[in-house]
Fold Cytochrome c domain-containing protein.
Amino acid sequence: MDPVRNPYAPGAGQRPPELAGRDRELDVFDVVLERVARGRPERSLVLTGLRGVGKTVLLNTLRSAAIGRLWGTGKIEARPDQSLRRPVSGALHMAIRELAPHHRDPDRVDEVLGVLKAFALRANDGNAKLRDRWAPGIDVPPARGRADSGDIEIDLVELFTDAASLATDVGTGIALFIDEMQDLSATDVSALCAACHELSQLGAPLIVVGAGLPHLPAVLSAAKSYSERLFRYARIDRLDRDAADLALGVPAEREGVEYEQDALDLLYEKSGGYPYFVQAYGKATWDHAPQTPITANDVQVAAPEAEGELAVGFFGSRFERATPAEREYMRAMAVLSGDPGNDMDAAVPTSDIATSLGRKPASLSPARDALIKKGLIYSGERGTVAFTVPHFGRYLRTQPV
């Protein structure tokens, strides 16, 4: 069939042609937006799940919903090596710019922008040379005595409070979207939780919508014990069979193409229902199918191409980031997670990994910690680790040592 008309989109954060299986999350967010806009108390939202389940896509969709309600929005992607202050400054600047045209008092907008600039300038190292200092693109003088203490927790609380008051003036809200939230430093996570806690007590119309790996709730809880009650948590998992069929079938129908039932059966078996894999196998199958309806044989012929692309772009690129010691650790994980008594990619006790490698657990801590920092594995429960990428264990078991 015509590859130009291929509707599938296996890309990082790229919205699929049919966002199937996420209606519940979208409905929940609509309620949150409406409640906050009416001054009702509501919690911020945290999405968690493995890589490839569509967290970033959903985060972007939720942001579009907020923009549709005339909210001010901004989005950042957390990085382990970057303080929260600078990216938050840029994101909130964007949100305030979106609200400014609806505000009757430009001086009031400039007042909040002055606080934002004061907050942003604290990102600079006081010992840095003038030419090396970051200058935020905010054309108002920085305020003094507000959000400029240098303590990120104090400053973030004051900044969020002032930004939320601006949203209150125009009868709307602000939503800050944070992807890869588990990569924030412990200090920044603590500050973010404190700011959200203050906002919830004030009933202020500013919410944080975060997305991250499955251990993100544990990261938040370690920073502030009350975070368990502070956020509404939503686990984003693979698609069920009906949703996966919709993700494949609806875009195809728009192009006048159908699937035989056996083809859909095989596609679900191959993809496991993980949205990124659904798109990858769907794209390869479309390109190989000679005509409609698409058959199971078409899927079989196309599967090696999809698996080859996943091996290079989805699995291989991550494996290459690991050191030899880290790869040895992951290979041991893969073998153990593939035992007959375990589910595919199941969590593995760290003690079992040490035993299989003939090492003491303490000697493997550097490799484990580095892999967690790189986002290749996570520790959902004390003493266990699991892959952040679906089917990664299966991939490693097929690779030569």
The chain has a mean pLDDT of 91. The beta strands are 44-48, 72-77, 174-179, 206-212, 231-235, 348-349, 377-378, 384-387. The first strand starts at residue 44 and ends at 48. The two ends are 39 Å apart (CA to CA).
